[in-house]
Design goal:
The protein is of the alpha+beta class. The protein contains nine helices and eight strands. The longest helix has 24 residues, at 138-161.
Amino acid sequence: MVPVAHANDGGGSIRLPAAWCGLVGLKPSRGRISEPLDTFVISELVVSRTVRDVAAVLDAVQGSEPGDLFVALPPARSYRAEVGADPGKLRIGMLTRASFGDIHPECLAATQAAAKLLESVGHEVEESYPEALLDPELRERIAPLERFAFAGVIRVLSEILGRPTTRDDVEPYTWSATELLPSVTVDQYLVATDWLFRLWRRRVVQWWSAGFDLLLTPTVWEPPATLESMMPEEDKTLELKPKIDRQVFYTSPFNLTGQPAISLPLHWTPEGLPVGIQLVGAIGREDLLIRVASQLEQARPWINRRPPVHA
């Protein structure tokens, strides 16, 4: 309905809607865009139909403000200039596994087809990825940070509203998470933060410094979910948590590392539903993501594709 729409991403909320709506969604590097709340996981930008429009908006909003806690190095040139620029021959890893089991066949097919497309335009793709992404301890280790983050949402919203936030002000899952998830002690929060930044994050980002340029993954493990499947029964909202954890399996790790990642609508199911693939770059490499995304957009255009149900 509009050329671009604002979105923010604390676990995948730019990339998942893009994947399920046939759009382009770029989550920038931590510190690329000034974030007043100074959270270490949330990034702001837009979803759009084209790589060009996403790049143009990023040009308009990128940069830091005095007092920002996180600051990314400025780009060498405008992101709009990266659209259509030759990325050169890249070494790209691919991950299609998940710690919870098999992914949907359509999402597997989408990723494998994207790998072949990348190879057809001159890149080298191989099955390689940071092993830490499959760490079975990840969700349990960061659980104290999730509880803290949901409580922070309620606190900030109360400040904006000028009154205490109520159940009717937020989605049921957000309210249930603040009420029903176990309380977090300061010690638990510090232990989780130390493990995340000192150990797990380093294990992930070191993969890019070992000779790889990008990582290819599905954006999400299944095609677009129905609204009914995401509506829990009354007072059973937290039963959604395992499902949500699966849906953000490929996206949320890069909120934790601060890396840029883009979802592209390169695949469609036989029913006409869009399926996104994700490319992840090293910190600060939005320029490379835009070059490759533009290359794929030219090779397999999606601008005129619409799901059978759309606004």
